[in-house]
What does this fold into?
Amino acid sequence: MLVSKRVQNMYPSQTLALVELAAKFKEKGYQIISLAVGEPDFTTPPNVIEAACKAMHEGKTHYTPPTGIKELKVAIAEKYRNENSVDVDENNVIVTPAKLAIFNTLSAFVDPGDEVLIPDPGWVSYKEMVHFARGKPVSYKLDEEKDFGLDVDDLLSKVNFKTKVLIINTPSNPTGGILSREDIKTIRDIVMDFDLILISDEIYEKIIFEGEHISPGVYEDLRMNTIIVNGFSKGWAMTGWRIGYLIAPHRYIPELEKIQQHTISCAPSMSQYAALEALRTREYVSEMVEEFKTRRDYVYKQLSNMRGISIKKPKATFYMFPKYDFDISSKKFVEDFMIREKVAVTPGSAFGMYGENHIRISFATSMENLKEGLARLRRFVENL
Ligand code: PMP
It folds into this structure.
C-alpha cells in the first residue's frame, strides 16, 4: 500500500545525506566537526530542570487543559505585554511546541490551492508544512544587500488574490538577520491591504546581539490578523522539552484549540512548569547570548578575509550565512568539504533558491571546534 501523495511529495531534510556521510567517516575513526547544529550547545538552566522535577514529584504528570496551564499562559501574556508591547491576555495564548504551532496554524487557515508566502532564504520546514496543508508555497526574496531585510518589490509581485498567509521569521534562520521597524510597517500594509493571515515566527527572539526585535503584534490592527509563534527551545536551550506557544486573536482561539485537542491534546505537563520557570530566568540567557556574541565576532572575522567568501554580519541567532564565489553548487560544496576536511555545514540551497551559493555555519559549538572548523574551511577554499 502506498503512503499518501502528500507524504510521497514531502522531501526529507536535505541535510540527511550529509549526516549519513558524516556517520560513515566517524565509523572509520575520523574526527568530524559539526558546524551544522540547530540548537544551543548549552544545557537547560539548572533551576528550570529543578522546576520540572519538582512538578513531577508533586504529581503534575497528567494531561493539562489543551491550551496549557493558566499560570504559564498568564506569564506568557505578561511577557508579550511588558517586553514586546503587544496587548494580549492569557486567553490569546495556546501552549504547544513551536513547530506544531506553525503546523496547526497552517492547517487552520489554508485550503487546497491557497498560496502561502514563505521567506527565501528561510527555514526548511515552512515549505513542507505548507505542502502538507495542501497549500502552495510561494517564496519571497530576502535582500542580502539589506542584511537580509525585505525586498519589497519582490514581495509585492508575489501577492495576489490567492494569497492567504504570509510567514515572516525574525530573527531569521538561516540568515541571522532581523526585520527592521520599516520592514514590519511594510508587512503591515501588505497584510491589511490584502487581508492576509500573518504568521510571525519569533523563536530566535532572545538571541540578539544588535538591534531590536519588533513583533508585528505591536500594531493593534495587524495583531488582529497575526498569529505569533515563539518558544523556549533556542532562548533557554530547551529543544528536547518540546515547549513553545502561539498567540492569536481571541476569535481564532476556539478553532486553533480544536486542532490542539485532536492532535497533541496538550503540551507536556512537566515542560509547561519548566517553561514557567524559564520566563523568570534572565541571567543564564544573557550569559549564553554573550558567549554566542563572542563566537559570532570570531567567526565573522575569520570569514571576512577568506578567499572567495563574502559575509553580512548577523545581528542575531547562532547562524552565519556566507556567500561564496566559486562555480560549484552548495550541495557539492558541502559534500566536498565533508569528504576533504571532515567538517559538516549546511548547503544554502536547503533554504530556498536564493540560498544557493551560500552555506550555513552554526556557531552553536565550542570555540575550539570553531577554530579548527574554520581553519579547515580556509584551507578548503584556498584549494577550490
Ligand atoms: N522556527 C524556526 C525558524 C526554527 O529554526 C525552529 C527550530 N529549528 C522552529 C521554528 C521550531 O522550534 P521548536 O523546535 O521549538 O519546535
